[in-house]
Amino acid sequence: MKKIKCIIVDDEPLAVSLLGSYVEKIPFLELVFSTENPIEALEFIQKSDTDLVFLDIQMPELTGINFMKIVGDKMKYILTTAYSEYALEGYEHNVVDYLLKPISFDRFNRSAQKAQERFPVTEINETGHFFVKSSGQQHRINFDEILYVESIKDYVNIKTQTQEYIVLDTLKSLENQLPEKFIRIHKSYILNLNQIKTYDSKKIILTNNLEIPIGESYKMNFLNSIQN
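-> structure tokens emitted (228 positions)
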């Protein structure tokens, strides 16, 4: 089982300790960092992979709402607070759930289950395929058949040689799970290197003659991958 990497940000030490003990009881969650200081959390996020943030809203140095505005939608959030009036504003961001303090383990567990549903792609196995949830069903997709993966807001489109699968997931999550022959070549695209027909400094033509742009910040990594 691929674990969801999460951090806890709360200015109350007891809340951090309680949530940490809850995370340890959930097999698909992995606590990679916890802090009472949201500024420290921002620094950690810049240097490390994080999928999910358990985030207090009312904090003195930086509110949870402002924290989400800074970080953006590159990760998901479960909000934790004693003030229910913040719930509506929080849901304007990439929020999975809202936990009102005091938080019971049963309520925390249900919230964690919601989060797991937002990370539906299963871990890679050695047989060259994985399963993704699309249109209410689990679909088997062989890696060799994938042309590219495209980000579409809160979803990704996995384009194969014969079909498209719209999955509730993030490009970052898939990037961490796909084999080495898949590479991020644009903020919105992950590409199967084995499906390249031709390329130049600005674009890639795939074997099905589809054209994919190369992002300027991804160009060097792409060229190094091609050469290797």
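Residues 105-117 form the longest helix (13 residues).
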